[in-house]
């Protein structure tokens, strides 16, 4: 079994560096995917209310045979539940669906600056953390002004900021802000939906190491100190993704992949995303 490296969060807790994402997996299939991932050696499962498969996530954790205290479980608050009281109710609903007694990480899924409720929402997450119902709290898709406002108005920095990040969108500036604030950067859509698979920098590294281009990209995330949460329903691909932890890119290969950045988003811009839009 591949040894999982860990990252230390700003609240002192430990999070596995690589996890399995479950976006766009049907609830009925999610339990098998999660159980298989945990049996392969994954110890981080990244879910969300918006994925509509939290029940399957909980079943998979229970069916895996892996002790609950060995699994780092994340879920996220969806946009229709921002605000203090609404966030508390949404968390209760998530826990009912998961069938778990606590979460390891709970994130605000989007800042929704036009709605202007993320500070009150953050205060609700702080309360949940203080009550011990979630171990760590964080954000997703937050830009520097959103992060600084949370900290300025509550004194509490997110433990994690999960953002779209891949070789076509390296987010160097936001990664630097996260580091300055002591926030771990976690990459969603880490493979960029295949956008950079044909890049010579990636193909050459894959040829040298005798691995897949996806493994090269995942290793690039790992060597940058990022947490990464690739998604797959295929057991062989799940194992292949995890094996990227055993690879090593050279400094020149890392620099060549960094140079692929072209600011290309595959998802919404957090500054413009309308809370009434679906994911």
Describe this structure in words.
There is one protein chain. The chain is of the alpha/beta class. The chain has a domain at 13-194 and 227-232: NADP-dependent oxidoreductase domain (TIM Barrel, Alpha-Beta Barrel), CATH 3.20.20.100. 40% of the residues lie in helices and 15% in strands. The chain is built from ten helices and ten strands. The protein has helices spanning 27-40, 54-63, 84-98, 118-130, 144-154, 172-181, 200-209, 213-223, 235-243, 251-258; strands spanning 6-8, 14-16, 20-21, 44-46, 72-77, 103-108, 134-140, 160-164, 184-188, 227-228. Strand 1 and strand 2 (14-16) form a beta hairpin. Helix 1 (27-40) packs parallel to helix 2 (54-63) and helix 1 crosses helix 9 (235-243). The protein starts with 5 loop residues before the first strand and ends in a 21-residue tail after the last helix.
- The ordered H/E elements are EEEHEHEHEHEHEHEHHEHH
Overall helicity: 25-40%
Rg of Cα set: 18 Å
Number of helical elements = 10
> Which word captures the global form?
globular
Report the strand count: 10
CATH domain class name of the domain at 13-194 and 227-232:
Alpha Beta
Structural class: alpha/beta
Percent in strands:
15-25%
Mean pLDDT: 96
If strands are numbered along the chain, what order do they take across the biggest sheet? 3-4-5-6-7-8-9-10
What is the CA–CA distance across the termini?
Answer: 34 Å
CATH topology of the domain at 13-194 and 227-232: TIM Barrel
As residue ranges, the low-confidence spans are none
Site (Lowers pKa of active site Tyr): 76
Keywords: NADP, Oxidoreductase
Organism: Paracoccus aestuarii
Domain NADP-dependent oxidoreductase: 19-261
């Amino acid at each position: 079994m591949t040894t999982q490296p860990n990252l230390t969060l700003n609240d002192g807790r430990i999070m596995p560096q690589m996890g399995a994402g479950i976006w766009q997996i049907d609830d009925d299939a999610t339990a098998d995917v999660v159980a298989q991932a945990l049996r392969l050696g994954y110890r981080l499962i990244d879910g969300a209310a918006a994925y509509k498969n939290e029940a399957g996530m909980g079943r998979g954790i229970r069916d895996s045979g892996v002790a609950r205290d060995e699994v780092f479980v994340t879920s996220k608050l969806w946009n229709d539940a921002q605000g203090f009281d609404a966030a508390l109710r949404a968390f209760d609903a998530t826990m009912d669906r998961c069938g778990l007694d606590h979460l390891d990480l709970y994130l605000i899924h989007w800042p929704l600056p036009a709605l202007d409720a993320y500070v009150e929402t953050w205060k609700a997450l702080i309360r949940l953390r203080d009550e011990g119902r979630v171990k760590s709290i964080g954000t997703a898709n937050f830009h520097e002004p959103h992060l600084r406002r949370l900290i300025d108005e509550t004194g509490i920095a997110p433990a994690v900021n999960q953002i779209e990040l891949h070789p076509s969108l390296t987010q160097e500036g936001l990664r630097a802000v996260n580091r300055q604030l002591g926030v771990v950067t976690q990459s969603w859509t880490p493979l960029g939906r295949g956008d950079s698979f044909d890049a010579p920098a990636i193909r050459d590294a894959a040829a040298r190491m005798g691995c897949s281009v996806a493994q090269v990209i995942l290793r690039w995330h790992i060597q940058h100190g990022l947490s990464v949460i690739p998604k797959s329903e295929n057991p062989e691909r799940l194992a292949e993704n995890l094996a990227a932890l055993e690879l090593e890119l050279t400094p020149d290969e890392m620099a060549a992949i960094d140079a692929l950045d072209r600011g290309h988003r595959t998802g919404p811009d957090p500054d413009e995303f309308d809370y009434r839009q679906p994911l």
